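ok so for the tutorial part 2 we go from a plain amino acid sequence to predicted structure tokens. step 1 is just haveing the sequence, like this:
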Amino acid sequence: MKQELPQETKEKLNSLLELFKNKNSTETLEQISYLLFIKRLEEDDNAKQLDDNYESIFKNKENCKWSIFSKMSGSQNNEQKGILEHVRDIVFPFLRELDEDKFYYAKYLKNSTFTIENSQALIEAINLIASEELKRRSSSTDGLIYDYLLSQLNVEGDNKQYKTPDHIIDMMVELVAPDADDVICDPVCATGGFLVHAYEKILKSYTSKEFLEKKELVADKLGKEKRAKLEKNIFGFNDNQSMTRTAMMNLMMHMIKNPNIIQNHTLSARYDEQEKYSLILSNPKFNEKINESDLNSSFTIKTADKSIYLYLELVMRLLSTGGRAAIIVSEGLIFDTKGQGKTLKQTLLKDCRLDAVIKLHSKIFQPFGKDVSTSILIFTKSEKTEEVLFYEMENDGLSIDKKRTKVDKTDIPDIIEKFKTKDSNEFNDRTQKYFKVPFKEIKDNNYDLSFNTYKDFIYEEKKYDSSESMLSNIITAEENILENSKKILQITKGGLN
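step 2 — the prediction. this is what the tokens look like for a chain of 497 residues:
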């Protein structure tokens, strides 16, 4: 069971979000992230003071410390700026001037903008962040705070992307089984959810039972050297600066010190990596408009409006030999049996071992998205496809409507179990919601990967009465209606008299 914040902490965070109700989700999260970052910057700096050779980043900049300016008042006088002016004119220029050699993420603060307009709102935000309810109580609390903020905001929607629900991310991570030796990537990482969940899954596998009982992830069996290597081997890309900052802060809040979150469009000519990653998890944009002149020339697929085709080819290119991937794709790609869609899936099944196609129901991205039909592809590079597990997810633990409230029914544990035992079980009954299909049959169907193409539907013959019997029943019913109408009319006339 995933750890949750106490209700009183959620209430404090709700109050914090209320202060920014007039801003969009992206700006709200940016401003809160800046404040959390400034506070954490001083905490990390204090921890490093134990090293005699360490020089504080606040040297000659003491007034940029959270502990100093957080005590300031909102009023301004001749000798001192008010807190709003101080943060805007002194603290933020300090952030923008941080040394990139010491702080990898400093370059993403170069043009950071402070947009809180009201001194009282800033003071209330600072007080809420410094409150007892939001103080760090364990190594994972910062991450939980950020998770909650993300769950209440639609940052992806602001940036024309779909928010992938946490339980779907967890399922995908479980299916590809990340390990500390993996080099992990999300080429369109949005807020970084896939990377955070993969990292935490690895930490959990290396954390002692006694710590897990305390609901803490410390990875005490991993060791400092291997953990440092793991952190360096997690990569995410965004073409949008706001999303890059958000993802970076998300990973930092989940204990990754210097996240490799890079601002670059991975479909463009400016990005040319290949065969670098052993694990890729992603929910790419499906219909992003791409300027074909800006596309990387290595793409064999040429399309201006079906970006999911390009991202699938990109993932195949980025995977190293034996690398695994879990990627959400549109049903349009799943169904496409002509032209580029067929060619792309032919390459997928030839160059990779397609392990599973998991059909998701259309409400998966509600309440933040809209109804859309999607599937998850799970595959391994450079292995031959012999047969593919198909599974139709009917229930995911939430109601199949726009509200998406918790319910008892979920197929997720069964999907994981069937995936892990797919090589030792037959799964031949195609009347079920899961079964395996051999490669030859998929090839014969022009590489159609839609679940319904291979499912056997049971049609029950329904017996109807003879036409004479049905007509007789209709006449009898009509006679009864006429007789009852006459009785009602008589009663009505009697009442009028």
